[in-house]
Amino acid sequence: MAIKIEMPKLSDTMEEGVIAKWNVKEGDKISAGDIIAEVETDKATMDVEAFDDGILLKIIPGEGDAVPLGGLIAVIGEEGEDISDILDGTEGGSSEGSSKEENDSEKEDSSSGENKESKKDNKSDEKSEKPSDSSSSSDNGRVKASPLAKKMAEDKGIDISSVEGSGPEGRVVKKDIEDFKESASSGSGLSKPSGSSDHSKTFESLESKEVKVSQMRKVIARRLSESKFTNPHFYETIDIDMKAAMAARSSMNEANDVKISFNDIVVKACAIALTRHQAINSSWHDDVIKEHGDVHVAVAVAIDEGLMTPVINHADKKGLSQISAETRELAGLARDRKLQPEQMEGSTFTISNLGMFGIEEFTAIINPPNACILAVGAIRDVPVVENGAVVPGKRMKITLSSDHRIVDGAKAAQFLNTVRNLLENPLSMLL
Amino acid sequence: MAELQFREAIKAAIDEEMAKDEKVFVMGEEVAEYNGAYKTTEGLLDKYGYKRVIDTPISELGFAGIGVGAAMNGLRPIVEFMTFNFAVLAADQIINHASKVKYMTGGQISCPIVFRGPNASAGQLGATHSVAYDSMYAHFPGLKVIYTSEPDDAKGLLKSAIRDDNPVLFMESEQMYGLKGEVSDEDDYIIPIGKGKIKREGSDVTLVAHGKMYHLAVKAAEQLAKDGVECEIIDPRTVKPLDLPMIIESIKKTNRCVLLDEAHPFGGLAAEVGFLVQREAFDYLDAPVQRVTLPDVCAPFAKNLFDLWYPSVKQVVDAVNQVTYRN
Fold first, then answer.
1. Bridge partners, B174 (sequence order)
2. The domain A217-430 belongs to what CATH superfamily?
3. A175 at interface of B, judged by CB pairs closer than 8 A
4. How far is A171 from chain B (nearest CA, A)?
5. Can B2-183 and B197-323 be said to share one CATH topology?
6. 3-class secondary-structure state, position A34
7. Which of the two residues, B327 and A235, has the higher pLDDT score?
8. Which of A77, A205, A331, B172 could serve as a FRET partner for A417 with CA atoms 20 to 30 Å apart?
9. What's the pTM?
10. pLDDT per position as a tens digit, A37-56
């Protein structure tokens, strides 16, 4: 009896996975527990494990292909077993084709991007220079779309795989492309002047290119747009005297091999402040607001392809050296894209720090389902007035973005004052 | 413009062509003394006499053969069948002789003949009296097929058919003979064979409907307009040669298409047009082409079954909702 292997749900927000690598090939003998493939999800590259023994009879998507959740990726069974029924059965629901023939031809299609299949390859090369990328059906699994929708998408340079279809079985139809255009039009309007270039003929410029939107970019785009457009943000900035915190940090770092950063101190101060202002440590659930009992602080980490937010669980209960060590480890994993989904889930508050770039202050977009995010600026040398005289001072601005559905201005201000008091009197964090 | 019944428009076309060209004559069952089973030849016997308005025995193969022979010898016969359901008996003359003689004689002998009469279902008349034959005759090379929906089209196209040097099947309907409509009183009014007409402009879906189905399309379009769906109705008028460019242009505008056909589905006109549309307008289609036809079942006699069998406004509305993704 042949067994289907389907795209597993490897993270809470995952809708599809891209096959990063097959560790096995058709005809291989598989044992339960074998890691048969690596799948790139919206968050990380994860292993796919086999749960049964048998011969790998069929691999459906190639490397680089995207498969929706639950879509068939492989079939295992006994040698020589007829699996045409299973493959036929995939026609309606899953994104891949039905008969063996179709599968083969689709494979050819999807691989033609990389190998030197003469005619097709030339064509796609030519096309990739034009504004549109016609490869939606080949490199991203099958996209169901009406012929008109495909043509409109191509004419407008829209990647059809990024359009949500409203037709039967998710078919992308004319209306979807029109609506898509509307929502994206402001962006493309802005980008046009730089792309369409009468002046590029007279000035030497970098080559214009199209960068395919990665899974991570798609998730960032979707989640942050949703947050910014649905959560009513408001912003409050407070200026903090960092002299005492700096002195405390130097003395701690002299005595400790784990080097404490300013960010670690901010994480700790926020974690403590959150225990005193539970309203900030909460999330919106339409009918109820959940005020979380635990404090899990996410820290935004910039990586080449985008941004990740590993979580320091129970940050209020952890010492600075533990926070520091954990942050360092998680940031390293994030840069190597080895973060596991559970290391990125469950945050109740987020901190984004651009101080190291000399940014004085900025506003951040709330990381759902958090109620607030804190944007941390650089510590600046500024003249301050102390006892009637101008003296050199150290100041840092932090800006809290709050979801006004949950948090009001006064509550946010109270929280910020607590954070300021903790940072200006670091010893009080020990209380 | 004058308001004429369908039958009057047909009679006017025949009368005008008979007056213009003495080679034109009418032949068929009850066309002379009785003035036509449906009064489409009323008064013609009195006007043109027995030599040009000829009653025949009930022998379709026989008088169709006389017509084909007369046409081959230079006359321009109009052969009336009391219905195209009876013309099945004359099919050998139509399919094997009229359509092929020009081809088989290398163009030496033409067959300028018109076979005309009512086509398709006319209500509860049973299985053998209810078939739409336009698709079937359109299958054969060498035949032109016309099935009009309104008196004006009928007059202009019948005159063209009589003047055409090829065999033309001109189809009418018992149920439309009494239909009134404005008919051009332009002198020598001619509509060229093979030209369709956009009879209703719309932006959301193209309905292609000829013959009686045109009137079904109009009703469906009126109902859909109340829901904000604007149908464009194309009446091809001529089944073959078909005005495909007009249909394609319309679909390029509306992106959706529903075909109406009074014939059975398999291998019918709707099947052919559906194929042509997907080939010529593939990149413009936002939904699979749908069709409304008879089912693949003979006409039932019983009223309740007949009502289920015959295409309905609801079927057209449903098909439009399907192609516009409104269901």
1. none
2. Chloramphenicol acetyltransferase-like domain (3.30.559.10)
3. yes
4. 9
5. yes
6. coil
7. A235
8. A331
9. 0.52
10. 988 887 778 888 888 888 88
